[in-house]
Amino acid sequence: MKTQRNWSVLLGAAFLMATSAVGPGFLTQTTVFTQSLGASFGFVILLSIVLDIGVQLNVWRVIAVSEKRAQDVANAVLPGLGAFIAFLIVLGGLAFNIGNVGGAGLGLHVLAGIPVEVGAVISAAIAIGIFLVREAGKLMDRFTQILGALMIGLIVYVAWVSSPPVAEAAIRTIAPEEVDFAAIVTLVGGTVGGYITFAGGHRLLDAGVKGKEALGQVTASAVSGISLASIIRIFLFLATLGVLQQGKILNPENPPASVFELAAGSFGYKLFGVVMLSAAVTSVVGSAYTSVSFIKSFDKRIAEHENWVIIGFIVVSTTIFIFIGKPVKLLVWAGLLNGFVLPVTLATMLLAAHKKSLMGNYRHPKLLTLFGVLVVLLMAWMAGSTLLQQIGG
């Protein structure tokens, strides 16, 4: 019975991480980069998967062994650092949640023809409903699992009907004709950057999966989360590639919707509505939950009324969207910011991994440390290069 319960928690954390990553921005980025890089985008996806797994294993292991949330770990490494990181995480989480709420509204608009703003309010109400029940954590796990599985099934179907050039994609994944650093930074930042890095790790901690004895479970959950997000990315890449190979042109106003519609007609367009709604609502849940988990250790009142603070976070995001709209520039810069937040947070976790006062007699694997350091340096360099290009452009 205990094993079954643990598997439910592990899958819940994995799906929370994966569905937090797979939001409206994820769908658009994957489609746009496939359009610009073609089959060579497969290499970017492969490299990002390797980097993602390295990041998650380092971060989740430190959280589990220290039995502390990331902000508390950071404060133990350097007083005040946790508050600074929490500020960046919550700011980025709020920015993305505005986009997530808008994406959910768009999904309902495609499905039912209702105004996007009304759809956003309905979607926010669905997300809020999860945190109104006593067992919100368990309901959140089940909610993300069901919608995550639904997204995977629908995107696999669209990839199949688009008849993508699988052989060419496989070749270019190993031998790309073009490598785009901005795409790598965006993908890694969008999959394990900002709040997403900690979504599953904090969920496991809240569910009591912690300590050295739980490292096997933590590793399984972390790899599962990356695998789930990667499956969605890969099949959306293949679906887009199949549509483009047929000489069809994507609508620049909504590239991912074009892929679904061009691949499967009006039925495909409705499927896009389901996928967009599922991706957006689960991201609203993941963003709100994880953002609040970063501030609840700073004030007992937040921890005592956590669910109500999460609800307030969703309400604020929705209100901003209704009255201001989706601030495109804010979302673009928030995505780039995630590319910079990742090296800072990962470097902090790596320092913590070797701090005896935090980790006791635990010894962090040297290979993971080395890999983590390489990711920090690589992401800092690529993020810096991307920023200079943005400024120069």
Automatic annotation (TrEMBL):
Gene Ontology cellular-component annotations: plasma membrane
Protein name per its UniProtKB record: Divalent metal cation transporter
Transmembrane parts of this sequence: 37-55, 76-98, 110-131, 143-161, 181-201, 222-244, 271-295, 307-324, 330-353, 365-384
Keyword Zinc-finger (UniProt): no
Membrane topology: Multi-pass membrane protein
Keywords assigned: Membrane, Transmembrane, Transmembrane helix
Molecular function GO terms recorded: cadmium ion transmembrane transporter activity; manganese ion transmembrane transporter activity
Principal location listed in the UniProt entry: membrane
A Pfam entry, by short name: Nramp
BP GO annotations: iron ion transmembrane transport
Subcellular location: Membrane
